[in-house]
Amino acid sequence: LIERGINYLSSNTEDQAFNVFSHSRDFVVGELYIFVFDLQGVCMAHGQQADYIWQNLWEMRDSYGSPIIQNIIRKALDGGGWMTYEWRKATKVSYIKKVEKDGKVYAIGTG
Questions:
Q1: CA–CA separation, 38 vs 108, rounded Å?
Q2: Over the chain, what is the mean pLDDT?
Q3: DSSP readout, 19-41?
Q4: How far apart are CA 14 and CA 22, in angstroms?
Q5: How confident is the model over 44-79, as pLDDT tens digits?
Q6: Phi/psi at 44 (nearest 5 deg)?
Q7: How far apart are CA 21 and CA 5, in angstroms?
Q8: CB neighbours (10 Å) of residue 40?
Q9: Which residues lie closer than 8 Å to 81 by C-beta, 6 or more apart?
Q10: Does the N terminus or the C terminus of the chain have fewer Cβ atoms within 10 A?
Q11: Is there a contact between 99 and 6 (Cβ–Cβ < 8 Å)?
Q12: Distance between CA 60 and CA 17 in Å, rounded?
């Protein structure tokens, strides 16, 4: 799913890709969906919670005090991979990668 998302982003504008990731079922498989953050923590796309789009979630923390979005961005910048974290009082496992588009860098994930 994440590779499909990266390929879609690379062949479409950011606006088109982020809109499809957030407002269609094209990138939702069962409970998996795409999400994208810029490096400042702004949610660019979210396949399950459209109300997060354009919000800066940099300071979002789980109930243990762990900075969720900062950790997602760090994982992307460190080469990507699997990570486990708490999201809305549930344990989540997501795959995170760094993606570049038109000179901008994003953390893209599926979980």
A1: 9
A2: 95
A3: HHHHHSSTTEETTEEEEEEETTS
A4: 12
A5: 999 999 999 999 999 999 888 999 999 999 999 999
A6: -95, -30
A7: 8
A8: 10
A9: 75, 95, 96
A10: N
A11: yes
A12: 24
- Amino acid symbol at 81: G
Give yes or no for a contact between 34 and 1, defined as CB atoms under 8 angstroms apart.
Answer: yes
Q: Which residue has the tokens 């979002």?
A: 60
CA-to-CA distance for 34 and 111, rounded, in angstroms? 7
Q: What is the DSSP letter of 70?
A: H
Question: What ranges make up the beta strands (E) of 7-89?
Answer: 28-29, 32-38, 43-46, 81-87
Token pair for 31: 């409970």
Q: Side chain identity at 20, as an amino acid letter?
A: V
Pairing mode, strands 81-87 and 43-46 = unpaired
| Confidence band of 2 (pLDDT split at 50, 70, 90) | very high
Nearest CA-CA partner of 110 in 33, 9, 19: 33
> In Å, how far from its chain's centre is CA 76?
10
Q: How many CB atoms lie within 10 A of CB 30?
A: 6
